Amino acid sequence: LHYGIKKTGIAILEIKPLAKKIAGRDVYHIVGSGRSKGAFDWVFKVRDTYETFLDVDGIFPWLFVRDINEGGYKKQQTYKFAQNNNKVDNGKGKYFKAPHGVQDMLSAFYYARSIDYSKAKKGETFTIWSFVDDELWPLKIRYLGKDQIKVGGDKYKALKFCPVVQEGRLFENEEDVTVWISDDENKIPLLAQGKVLIGSVKMELSKAKGLANPSAKID
């Protein structure tokens, strides 16, 4: 993770099979963690953990856990998804109606990677309904076509996207972020960069292991 030219942190996404089933179905336990590094850690300490328990076949969550500390701002959330009853339990005595297959903040990323983009047209927008901060949110990603990029000294065939983000919170405009994922069956994130209200941020792949399919790396 970079803010401007400075390396400010590291994020890890890890997929693990869950030994037990949920609702009689196989589940992946996916953990996303992020932390600040170096001098930035003194200025704005970040210790974030996100967990989703993702249905292997349906690619939807059964449980979502969020535990974040960002510069002293702390938040903990536990959402239980009753996918068969179209409800979400926020763990605080409130239940919300939600469509079947609704995603959480982390599972939405994996669901997006499961979409077949082989016939997508440049400019086409995909909507993923997600449950975020006790609200249904239509996460939208716009396909920008095929590309080739260089990350960490390696060149990859890539698919380019623009996630439509919320204006005014961190980003000035809804199309201030661009994301590249590998143009292969893995669809791993390679690069994301965007303009924020002050400066710019960039996230780039440093390492990936345990991939299920051949890489789109160009030799």
What string, H for helix and E for strand, traces the elements in order?
Answer: EEEEHEEEEEHEEEEEEE
How far apart lie the N and C ends? 26 Å
Low-confidence stretches: 167-171
C-alpha geometry: globular
Question: Which bin fits the share of residues in helices?
Answer: under 10%
Number of continuous helical runs: 2
Largest sheet entry: 9 strands, antiparallel
What is the structural class? mainly beta
Taken as a percent bin, the fraction of beta residues is over 45%
Radius of gyration over C-alpha positions, nearest whole angstrom: 18 Å
- On the 0 to 100 scale, the average pLDDT is 91
Number of strands: 16
Subunit organisation of the chains: single chain
Write the layout of secondary structure elements.
Blueprint: E1 2-3, E2 6-7, E3 9-17, E4 27-36, H1 38-43, E5 46-55, E6 61-70, E7 73-82, E8 87-89, E9 95-97, H2 107-114, E10 125-132, E11 135-151, E12 154-164, E13 177-182, E14 189-195, E15 200-204, E16 217-218
Antiparallel strand pairs: 1-2, 1-15, 3-4, 4-5, 5-6, 6-7, 7-8, 8-9, 10-11, 11-12, 12-13, 12-16, 13-14, 14-15
Description:
This protein has helices at 38-43, 107-114, and strands at residues 2-3, 6-7, 9-17, 27-36, 46-55, 61-70, 73-82, 87-89, 95-97, 125-132, 135-151, 154-164, 177-182, 189-195, 200-204, 217-218. With 219 residues, the chain is mostly beta strands. The strands form 2 sheets. Strands 1, 2, 10, 11, 12, 13, 14, 15 and 16 form a 9-stranded antiparallel β-sheet that branches. Strands 3-4-5-6-7-8-9 form a 7-stranded antiparallel β-sheet. Strand 8 and strand 9 form a beta hairpin. Residues 167-171 have low confidence and may be disordered.
